[in-house]
Amino acid sequence: MQRHPSEPSLSQPPEYRETPGLILTNPLLFPPSRAESSRIVFTAYGHFDAVRMMSSTNDEDPFLQVQQDVLNQMANARPLFASYLRIRSLSTDANSPELASARSDLESALSSLADDLADLVASVRAVESKPSQFGLSPNEVTRRKRLVQEVGGEIDDMHDELAKKVDAGDLPDPNAFAIDGDAEDNYAEFEQQQQMEMMHEQDQHLDGVFQTVGNLRRQADDMGRELEEQREMLEEVDTVADRVGGRLATGVQKLQYVMRQNEDRYSSCCIAVLIFVLILLLILLLIL
């Protein structure tokens, strides 16, 4: 089988050149663990054949691996960027060690991010013309383009902030804030007046609190007197109730005595009447 004259041999490294629709071999898109088991062969017709000698057929897309690395680096770079902005806003010295350290850490993180982002951009450009050839859908290609655009825009914003250097000459002269004697006297008088007004307001608030406490105390005294009067009234009612109860008990005893007496008298009368009736009946029987 004859090989095309422009097709490189598998035993020799290919001559890489930028060709529309091609993605160049990149150690980030193809990590060392993959590069040792993969070889990319570029043909003269603008296509490439991938000869992969992998132990598993379920390896992840290299783009997704680099994408995850970029997202992790962005998550680490954002706190560094926020710390740099905070230190820069509080720093009065352009040569501050804290500012220099924060700037160095942020620049190092952005440098690594820029390299990885460049690989992602090159990968997207290579597959956007014929995504089906690489097993990608148009929606996936659009998502990848949007991802690299958003990350790139955020990195550009960070670079713009880094470009705003803090120069010692731009800082205001501390002597410019010096206050002359008259102004200082006026300021002291103003401060004293403000303090007097605050003290007067506090006195008014304290007077109001004192009046409120006095009102509450008077109300408590009134409630105490009312409770004492009610206690005395309850004692009087209790005494009257005891007296009435005693009288009622005496009256009940008298009624019971009268009833017993009446019961004895009535029974005697009944017996006498019955005896008289019996005698009368006997007499009548004897006569008749």
From TrEMBL:
Occurrences of domain T-SNARE coiled-coil homology (ranges): 196-258
A Gene Ontology term for the protein's cellular component: Golgi membrane
Statement: the UniProt record of this protein carries the keyword Ion transport: no
Membrane topology value: Single-pass type IV membrane protein
Keyword terms: Coiled coil, Golgi apparatus, Membrane, Protein transport, Transmembrane, Transmembrane helix, Transport
InterPro entries documented for this protein: SNARE, Syntaxin-6/10/61_N, T_SNARE_dom, Tlg1p-like_N
Listed transmembrane segments: 266-287
Entry similarity comment: Belongs to the syntaxin family.
UniProt protein name: t-SNARE affecting a late Golgi compartment protein 1
The species this protein was found in: Fusarium odoratissimum (strain NRRL 54006)
